[in-house]
UniProtKB/TrEMBL annotation:
It holds the Pfam family SYY_C-terminal. Keywords: Aminoacyl-tRNA synthetase, ATP-binding, Cytoplasm, Ligase, Nucleotide-binding, Protein biosynthesis, RNA-binding. The keyword ATP-binding applies. It is an enzyme of class 6 (ligase). The gene is tyrS. The lineage of its organism: Bacteria, Pseudomonadati, Bacteroidota, Bacteroidia, Marinilabiliales. Belongs to the class-I aminoacyl-tRNA synthetase family. TyrS type 1 subfamily. Its EC number is 6.1.1.1. One of its GO terms (molecular function) is protein homodimerization activity. Catalyzes the attachment of tyrosine to tRNA(Tyr) in a two-step reaction: tyrosine is first activated by ATP to form Tyr-AMP and then transferred to the acceptor end of tRNA(Tyr). It comes from Draconibacterium aestuarii. It catalyses: tRNA(Tyr) + L-tyrosine + ATP = L-tyrosyl-tRNA(Tyr) + AMP + diphosphate + H(+). This is Tyrosine--tRNA ligase. ATP binds at residue 235. GO terms for biological process: tyrosyl-tRNA aminoacylation.
RNA sequence: GGGAAGAUACCGAAGCGGUCAAACGGGGCAGACUGUAAAUCUGUUGGCUCAGCCUUCGUAGGUUCGAAUCCUGCUCUUCCCA
């Protein structure tokens, strides 16, 4: 199966320029996607582009990840209703390093083969480019009429846009287009890929290559990832889902994929894992038989967590999930060693309390509503207890007069309070 | 500039002198069910030293034994006429 066919059955192909497939069959083709270095970590929204590069490398072509240092300083108007904040250079370099680190989990940057992955930063060639040179060498080749015809521009000039569009943003597509030209001339790069919202920007590049270099270059986009319920993909209540374990713990990362809805799971597993068509077909069939087993979600979460983090992190996440959602019991909880315990409850709101005070025994209500802010008011806590909604160390508390003392400590240090099923709070005795 | 209506808890919206911490709907939270889902059902949704008490109905005063409810000033909102 060739690269294009591969993307096609995975549902990762939205639009493709005629001739692209032929080009890929002809020779080892370098192709790039752009990545905005707005943060020092990728998030799962970037993952689709990364997977495209990965498939590209597997198919024997050369993946190029372009860090949009220069373009990130401008801001892509596509899909944005407002101007973007600009990044300074030190931040940019830092972000670039972190991103490269993450990419190396997916792409082979050290191969001896011709299809070794490359990482470039367009800031490196844009920073020396003077304005005069740019408008003479690049700007001269593209008409404003052409640029105005792009959807991303039209939208910003249209009536629904309140803020207007700066000249800086207007030139964005030229700068991105020039990247393509630069890579075409220096790396023989003939293909640019990206999300379907990038089509306009990409074709500016192919147009530029045709007019400046007389060459032929190609474009390919993948559909934007959507969710069946219409909410935005890749977001949780707590924000973006990052690849960086410091920003999103492997446990939360795992949970994100596990909680994928049935409607979305099939699409996602094709896009975000490297499982073969046969394997996925079997999983989908199995899932239809027994949807409550959620075999699709489990496999999806497993594959992606291992790929982004590691097998160990995955196993830890499964273990944590069992304690939190499975038949986790008080004994199981007490059996955990401290480091696992902390990993399981990493990211859970924490409160501290003095150990000596606890030794004397504290009433549950005082402990959770006064000494700590697990509950905002005592009344609410009382209601929760009445409604059978409070657990301490995985055991239901029904008595509002309960006295908590050192006997409740896990690993001689922690008390786990639980509001309802899903809300955990960690109290640390010091 | 003139006139009218209105401002109630997270949101919408009842209440028009005592029985009002305030109907009802939405949302939130919790319980049951379940697949860590959806739907459904149940409870709860100002605070506290919790069968009681305290602070809330735009804001500041007033009338009254008693005010979300009546009166006055102020602020804001909406509508109509200039």
């Amino acid at each position: 199966m060739n690269f294009v066919e591969e993307l096609k059955w995975r549902g990762m192909l939205h639009d493709i320029m005629p001739g692209t497939e032929e080009q890929l069959q002809k020779e080892v083709t370098p192709a790039y996607v752009g990545i905005d270095p707005t943060a020092d970590s990728l998030h799962i929204g970037h993952l689709v582009s990364v997977m495209m590069l990965k498939h590209l490398q597997i198919a024997g072509h050369q993946p190029i990840a372009l860090i949009g240092g220069a373009t990130g300083m401008i801001g892509d108007p596509s899909g944005k209703s407002q101007e973007r904040n600009l990044l300074d250079e030190p931040t940019l370099r830092h972000n670039q390093e972190c991103i490269k680190n993450q990419l190396s989990k997916f792409l082979d940057f050290d191969s001896e083969e011709a299809n070794v992955a490359l990482l470039v930063n367009n800031y490196d060639w844009m920073k020396e480019f003077s304005f005069l040179e740019f408008i003479r060498d690049v700007g001269k080749r593209i008409t404003v009429n052409y640029m105005m015809a792009k959807d991303s521009v039209k939208k910003r000039l249209g009536e629904e846009s309140k803020s207007g569009m700066s000249f800086t943003e207007f030139t964005y597509q030229l700068v991105q287009g020039y990247d393509f030209l630069h890579l075409y001339q220096n790396n023989n790069c003939k293909l640019q890929m990206g999300g379907s919202d990038q089509w306009g920007n990409i074709t500016t590049g192919t147009e530029l290559i045709r007019r400046v270099a007389g060459g032929e270059a190609f474009a390919m986009t993948c559909p934007l990832i959507t969710k069946a319920d219409g909410t935005k993909f890749g977001k949780t209540e707590s924000g973006n889902v990052w690849l960086d374990p410091e920003r999103t713990s492997p446990y939360s990362f795992f949970q994100f994929w596990l909680n994928t809805s049935d409607e979305d799971a099939e699409r996602y597993i094709k896009i975000f894992t490297l499982l073969s068509k046969e394997e996925i077909d079997a999983l989908v069939a199995g899932h239809k038989e027994a949807p409550h087993m959620r075999s699709l979600q489990k496999k999806l979460a497993e594959e992606v967590t291992i790929m982004v983090h590691s097998k160990e992190e995955y196993e830890m996440a499964v273990e944590a999930s069992q304690i939190l959602f499975g038949k986790g019991t008080a004994e199981q909880l007490r059996k955990l060693n401290e480091s696992t315990f902390l990993a399981v409850f990493e990211g859970v709101p924490q409160f501290t309390i003095s150990k000596t005070e606890l030794a004397e025994g504290i009433n549950v209500i005082d402990l959770l509503a006064e000494k700590t802010e697990v509950f905002p008011s005592k009344g609410e806590l009382r209601r929760t207890i009445k409604g059978n909604g409070l657990s301490i160390n995985k055991e239901k508390i029904g008595d509002p007069d309960l006295i908590v003392n050192n006997d409740y400590l896990i690993a001689d240090k922690y008390i786990l309070a639980q509001k309802g099923k899903k809300n955990y709070f960690l109290i640390i005795a010091e």
